[in-house]
Amino acid sequence: MTNTIETLPTPSVVIYEDVVKRNCKLMHDRAISLGVDIRPHMKTHKTIEIGKFQTETINIKKIIVSTLSEARFFALSGQFKDILYTVPIVPTKLAAAAHIHSSIDVLHLMVDHPDHIKAMVEYRNQHLGALGNKKWSVFLKIDCGYHRAGADPELPSTIKLVEQLTKSLSDHFVFQGIYTHSGHSYKQTSPDGIAKIATSEATVAGNFAKKIRSLGYPCPIVSIGSTPVCCHLPNNLKDLGVTEIHPGNYVFYDLMQVELGNCKVDDVGVHVVSRVISVYPERNEMLVDAGSLALSSDPGCTHLPDRAPGFGIIVGDNNLRIVGVTQEIGKVSSVNGSPIDFNKYTIGSIVRIVPNHSCLTAAMFSNFNVLSTESTTQVKETWIPNKHW
Amino acid sequence: MTNTIETLPTPSVVIYEDVVKRNCKLMHDRAISLGVDIRPHMKTHKTIEIGKFQTETINIKKIIVSTLSEARFFALSGQFKDILYTVPIVPTKLAAAAHIHSSIDVLHLMVDHPDHIKAMVEYRNQHLGALGNKKWSVFLKIDCGYHRAGADPELPSTIKLVEQLTKSLSDHFVFQGIYTHSGHSYKQTSPDGIAKIATSEATVAGNFAKKIRSLGYPCPIVSIGSTPVCCHLPNNLKDLGVTEIHPGNYVFYDLMQVELGNCKVDDVGVHVVSRVISVYPERNEMLVDAGSLALSSDPGCTHLPDRAPGFGIIVGDNNLRIVGVTQEIGKVSSVNGSPIDFNKYTIGSIVRIVPNHSCLTAAMFSNFNVLSTESTTQVKETWIPNKHW
Q1: Does the domain made of B35-252 have the CATH classification 3.90.550.10?
Q2: Spatial separation of the C-alpha atoms in residues B388 and A267, rounded to whole Å
Q3: Which end of chain B is flanked by fewer CB atoms within 10 Å, N or C?
């Protein structure tokens, strides 16, 4: 039996192929128009299918992953041969990384501390040939103001890392360039604020590249990212020294991206399908069978002024919001207090939910139900994402 | 090769068998000492093994689940024949429920609205024999003040539900009694506050049972729950009319339960094992490879006064807290600002994390690494939890 949205078990996730393809094309075209490359991130969806949409207009299918399990998954597909694992590499993960690196063109790793470099040299010396006679390929992660990962570009020790990667230890390394991530863009309150972060990230990254080049070191790639920033890039991006962008969440977007002004509700490519499990007219509330395991417990953009709290909105009825989640249950309230239409939301009826954070929501499901467009109810395919670690 | 905690891939989850068994025994003994039954919840761990620990001292292994996938999982094990699915039942789930009900002694379902009852009658009339010639076995969920699921015990329509289940539609139903869940216990700020909720829940449930019995309806079971409440039960629980308790989270506990005063840190039976992936002495911070997918994005007891924000604490170093999570990365800061010992927390070194919310954390992992005690590093077994829906 072919599933339709009405026969899906709930909770389920549905993906709109046309929306995802459109999001991929627009972001690709934006990069092209600004004269930079795009190296898309896989972590939001973790599927071969969407990875192909993200890269089909690119000559070299360069992708980014957030776990070695994802790296293995995309490498094994045979379709992605240039993969960047963006989390600073720990010594115990070098064996797995070397294996993947030897099986494809290149697995780039991320470093931001001399101990990463030291461990990689030791590993390569102790396991001759484990990398398929390749050198380690690395990006240097620098901190553009987010203060999560990344070496401080103002510290002399950061220049020393470049020196090691490109000169004194260059027998072991192919230095690709620098990489930044502007996660603080999610804490802005307006597109203008995000645009300022975009310019700031590009400037920090571009200036550091110029600085190290002026010291005689190479720096082929200058990669900046985060989906909010990639939605508000400056026109002089290339002049600032950036060579590529690396967005991820944009394939699906989500309620946070809508509320930050990075997309419209119609651009959200993933919904959680849920059913009304009970109604409580006496308190103008109802429950659905999507809770924190289906929607995640990410409260979203709580820093935005006047933002109604909650974990998602009901598609087609923006006044209805998931105001609370427990493990398997979501509570729906009317934001402005107007009466819920309980003739429409009968027990067992289907609702679609725009989740706060599509990366976390998608990670909760073992399969994605693909619909061509939001207007069809027919499930055309099932895509199986990579899971866990 | 047998895994030790040092060779586990990270992030991983470890479970301390002695702690979990102790938690199970203490909660069981508490119920016995108060003269009530215990019907333990499986949703926190979703494993056959822990389900056995929770029920091994009970004659009839009565358990609770939060999804029909869990119900199927525990039914298929052949070891659990009395299962309660606690989410209000929707019409489209009746076929699966009937199948499970017919395969074991009983699958109890939960109702709190006349439309649940109507759909069950229609299903049974249309699918003669689908239930293995059984009637539907049901609990009535009533609202004890949490205002999530549950019929309002003050409304005449709630008495009408009992009338339907026990008289006018009794050909279709075996009425088990009433069930309440005091999720608002998690919003208290002290054990005293939780104890008040416990007495209030027991009183609301007990009084409703007395009321319907006085009207001539049966009410064999009066079941109350939530782990906080079950940690602070009144001595006159039985006199208030309660016949059983149904805690779930207590098998593992977590940081929220510690902070609410329901257990000690040493009672937490589940830790996330993670590695330091980079260090930033210049800002007294470090990163670990456990982020929102390993720890969940549940911010925990943010309502507690003076509670430091975060998503977990480092075991053995309560001053170190996960102050922020992104998908695969946790940021560790020193709560009181004292310098982190970076000689101890070198890149690649193992940390164990007490997560805010063990139910959500456990749900993120496909396997649980079992250690006998916290003092051993040897993984003795791997338990496989039920996943998804």
Answers
A1: no
A2: 27
A3: N
Q: Do B277 and A92 touch (CB under 8 A)?
A: no
Q: What is the model's pLDDT at position B264?
A: 97
Architecture of domain B265-383: Beta Barrel (2.40)
Same fold, A35-253 and A265-383: no
Whether the predicted pLDDT of B275 surpasses 70: yes
Provide ipTM, 2 decimals.
0.96
d(CA B277, CA B274): 9
B11 prior amide bond cis, ω within 30:
yes
Residues of chain A contacting residue B328, judged by C-beta atoms under 8 Å apart: 43, 66-67, 87
How far is the C-alpha of A379 from the C-alpha of A382, rounded, in Å?
8
Q: Inspect the interface and report whether the beta carbons of B360 and A387 lie closer than 8 Å.
A: no
**A65 contacts chain B (CB < 8 A):** no
| Cross-chain Cβ contact A347/B119 below 8 Å | yes
- Asked if the Cβ–Cβ distance from A66 to B327 is below 8 Å, we say yes
Confidence of residue A1 (pLDDT cuts 50, 70, 90): low
User: How close, in Å, is residue B150 to chain A by CA atoms?
Assistant: 9
Question: Residue B147: its chain A contacts at CB < 8 A?
Answer: 283, 285
Contact residues for B225 (Cβ-Cβ < 8 A; gap 6+): B41, B179, B180, B181, B182, B245, B246, B247, B248
* Residue contact A329–B148, C-beta within 8 A: yes
CATH superfamily of A35-253: Alanine racemase (3.20.20.10)
* Other CB atoms within 10 Å distance of the CB of residue A316: 11
> pLDDT > 70: what percent of chain A?
99
Query: What pLDDT shows up at residue A227?
Result: 97
A225 min Cα distance to partner chain B (Å):
15
